[in-house]
Design a protein that fits this description.
single chain, mainly alpha, Rossmann fold, 2 domains, 3-stranded parallel beta sheet, 49% helix
Amino acid sequence: VIKKYQYLDKVNFPSDIKNLKISELKILAREVRKEMIDAVSVTGGHLGAGLGVVELTIALHYVFDTPNDKIIWDVGHQAYPHKILTGRKDKIKTLRQGNGLSGFTKRSESEYDPFGAAHSSTSISAALGIATANKLEKKSNQVVAVIGDGAISAGMAYEAMNNAGSSKTKMIVILNDNDMSIAKPVGAMSTYLAKLLSGKIYFSLRETIKLIISAFSKRFSDKARKAEDFLRSAVTG
C-alpha cells in the first residue's frame, strides 16, 4: 500500500486521533483538507462549508467520546471532514455518486451520524431531542450541535434554543461564526455577532470561560483544556 499522508493514513476512526500529539493535529488538518479537495474535484460538491470546519471537526472528535457522545452537524455540506475521520475515508471519492456516500450525514451510513442533516437550522432541535432522551434514560453522554452564523438566523433555531433554555436540558451548541454562507448573512443577528466579535466582550470571554470551567468537574476541565490547546496551535502555529 502506497503511503499518501503522514498522519491521515493512520487515522480511520476518532479513536485514532486521540493517539496523536497536539502538535501533530495541525498537520492532520492540512491532510484532511487536501483529501477533501481531491475528492470534491472528482465528485463535485460543496467545498466551503467543509473547509471551514476541518480544525473544529478534529477538535470535537479529539475531545469528545464519539459515537457515544453525539455531534449534530447543521447542514450536511460541512460534514465531509467528519466523514473522512469516521471510517469513510476510503469511500470519500464516491460522494454524491450512485451507491456511494451521501452528500449529507446519514444515519444508515454510520453510527457517527446520529441525525440525517440536509438543509439548515435543524441541528439544535435535533440535539435537544437526543439530549432529552438522554435525560429521561439518565445517560451522561454529551450532545453537541454545530451551527453556522447563517443557519442560526432561521426560526427553527430560535425555537429550539427557547425550548432548550426553558427545559434546562444539558447540551452544547457551537456557533461557527465565520461570516460565510451561500449568500451574505443579513439581519439583526448577523449585525449583533459582528459587533460582538469586535467589542470588549469577545476579548474578555476567554477569562470568563476559565472561571466557568473551574466550577465544573475535572473531566470537563481536561476536555476543555485539550480543545483550547489544539485551537491555539491551529491559530498561532
